[in-house]
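Appendix B. Raw example, untouched.
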Amino acid sequence: MKAPEISVVMGVYNNADTLPAALDSILSQEGVELEFIVVDDGSTDGSAALLDEAAKRDPRLKILHKRNEGLTRALIEGCALAAAPWIARQDADDVSLPGRLAAQLARARQADAPALVSCRAECIAPEGEVLFVTDALDDPEDARRRVLRERRTLSAHGAMLFLKDAYQAVGGYRAEFYYAQDVDLSIRLAEAGRVAVVADVLYRFQFAPGTISGRKNRWPLAFYRLILQSQAARTAGRSDQAILERARRLGTRCAKCRHKPVSRFPAWYFMGNCLLAKGNPSKAAHYLHLALELRPWSLRAWIRWRQACRQALRASIQEVDA
């Protein structure tokens, strides 16, 4: 094997259904030498055996099995094994589209030398509908402003590519942030250097109940607030150690209930709203109906569902008239 140009790092926890597609989407990438480091975070659904079998077929796959501690610690251990100068992320329920890694590496090697390069990504509902596409940020300064001032990531977490030296210099993923670890890392990389986004849509991620993207609950929001406080402390020249300690304690509490069921209502409602805005009222009504089955008392869901039904009816009538 040639020395890898990119180390792709992925954490896996009970992703047997989506894992084959995620693995193939990376191993089929062309135009770049890569190694694929996959950390099995204590899976119990057959993911571990699937990974071991895949590693027998492709020597670029390096599998690490560990006890379940959450995504952040899995990524820390995976990135520590990276042999390449660049580290790319991939999530186990997402896919990288053809040409993704080569395009991001080419952008990273341009004269302005960004330390963090993302690409545009499309967010997909469970039945394959495109909910939204992340923003095109052609100007690197706009991209950096997005991270530092708006405190938002450039795209999906799994679409990130970053320079290993820069990652290590800023302290890498911080174990204290059980959730929102990508926001924390993106901010610190943007503080240290330039960032960029490839304009092409080269990544596809799922938004569904049960996925990290679909978990709109109080835990990620609590970590996000601590990340903003940490950034403010650094900007003011103060230590953020006290904030990190609060994040660590929060993470301990969060880990104790990480396998508890999460309400599916926010995810269904969000998908319905997205599809209504995109002009797909019939599918919007479908997802909003799922939301109402969980919370039939939700006035906002009823209002949106009726809007979607009326629009779907009008569209159906227009098709008949045509």
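End of appendix B.
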